[in-house]
Amino acid sequence: MATIVGGFTTAHTPTIGFAVDTNKQNDPVWAPIFKGYEPVQQWLKETAPDVILYIFNDHMTSFFIDHYSQFALGVGEIYPVADEGGGARELPPLHGDPELAEHIAKGLVADEFDLSYFQNKGLDHGCFSPMSLLFPEHKQGWPTKIIPFQVGVLQAPSPSAARCYKLGKSLRRAILNYPKDIKVAIAGTGGLSHQVHGERCGFNNTPWDMEFMERLASDPEGLTKYTIFQLAELGGLEGAEIVMWLMMRGALSEKVETIHQTYYLPSMTPIASMVLEERSNEGLEENHDDYMKRINHQLAGFETLEGTYPFTITRGVKAFRLNNFLHDLIHPEHRKLFLEDQEASFEKYELTEEERDLVRRLDWRGLIHYGVIFFMLEKLGAVVGTTNIHIYAAMKGMSLEDFQKTRNAQVLYSVAGKEKGKTDWDKEQSSK
Questions:
Q1: What is the structure's pLDDT at 418?
Q2: How many other C-beta atoms are found inside a 10 Å radius of the C-beta of residue 143?
Q3: Helix/strand/coil percent split, the chain, to 5
Q4: What is the pLDDT of residue 431?
Q5: Catalytic residue among 12, 125, 334, 390
Q6: Catalytic-labelled residue, pool 12, 194, 334, 390
Q7: Which residues of the chain have pLDDT under 50?
């Protein structure tokens, strides 16, 4: 079974990544940053977690207000560095653990936490800034996998301190019931007191920061009583992101020991970190078999439902590349390339030969079996000028005429819009 080796907290200000990239280790202004993180680096070496459950917030880089979730779980295999406006940092991508992520997703959803899932998105300084300092050897590759957990703290209403703490407890249940023998560390990032906008820009409150760190270890439930306004009043609006530290704390045992704590305020944001180790073992309220049965309850039985393929996280990760290729047919430039030079479009998206063959042959049923969700087939059908009914018939292994006999009305339709030639089949139908 998986074990939790402990938790750590860290600021995720871009100050850290800048100091790493510009080799400020010996500059007297910047040196305390590096010195303060040496114990965390050593702890990570000694505990050697296989996976870090990394709680952070994106800064409107990969998660924008066009679709902003309160809780977004990273389920993919790889996470590149995001470009935040001046070019991406020269760091290797982080690797995920989709199998553990899917298990965690099942546990959180069973505990009635609503999630969104993401993969293949670039991660910004909220993740890579501290990671590049925590693992100085990162240029040779990261020694651990990561499951990024993005918390939507930037747009109100945002998750409360109490909600985040409760979610942390759900994370603990999920991780400790994961059947593989792996070690997991929990990271809570952000904070501490700071505000970067408005006339209150530059606000800090070191006494509150010190109180918060002490109570994070000794009285986390007391901290959950604070509203977002109260946290902002005490620590600045952006500083209210410390709810992510509480999520980390919820994932640990009731009693912990702070084995490291550092705090340095050079400019706008405190460069703070803590390492917490568990000092109690309360056990879990459910035995393992009951827990696994509960989190799999909603999908139990689908394996007996012939010809039915729920679009699970596993299928989404396996077939991400092909689903992404087909989804991008909503963009005119990609449609144009696909229609004019199919092979070039395949090459651009680095499709495998198996994936290319499925598309070339318009193997509708084969695409479903591979892991493509139906609504990507709908888009492909619209692009090549066929109808949903043709695709449905292919699913059944029937001719169009025979399939139409099973319907109450013999109609044709698709999701195609105004592009020329995409609905010529309707003219043919109308002329009959």
A1: 87
A2: 13
A3: 45, 15, 40
A4: 56
A5: 125
A6: 194
A7: none
